[in-house]
Task: structure prediction
Amino acid sequence: MKDNTSGVGATPEGVWTVPAVSVQPIIRLASWAVFEVETGERYFVGFNLDDQEGRVSTPIRRFDSVTGRAITESGRVYQIVGPAGQDPDGNWVWSRLMSTRNIKYRDVTSEYVFRNHDEVR
Result:
């Protein structure tokens, strides 16, 4: 999903756009998973604790398994909270984006071990 600098809107897939990185530089993501698409890009999918919504990140560029923080292509920081899981809202957004674009993907969550998930709140 691309960042939206002009306010709330919707994509052609019927998914809400997100605030600009300058407005919301950090997202706390729970019940998270990581999916890899055919191009090799990987995305976080989960529940945005701050906005109480399902969220799909832009492609992950860096991930620190000690802090549970990632930086995505947009420059946004994702702080994963708690263990990996499946969020129905996040999965709906992901499925909608992938099916309308006919993109194949696989679950690579097991490669993203967050060692200190009980310490981050």
Observations:
- The longest helix spans residues 88-101.
- Strands lie at 3-4, 18-19, 26-37, 42-48, 53-56, 60-64, 69-72, 77-81, 105-107.
- The helical segments are 88-101.
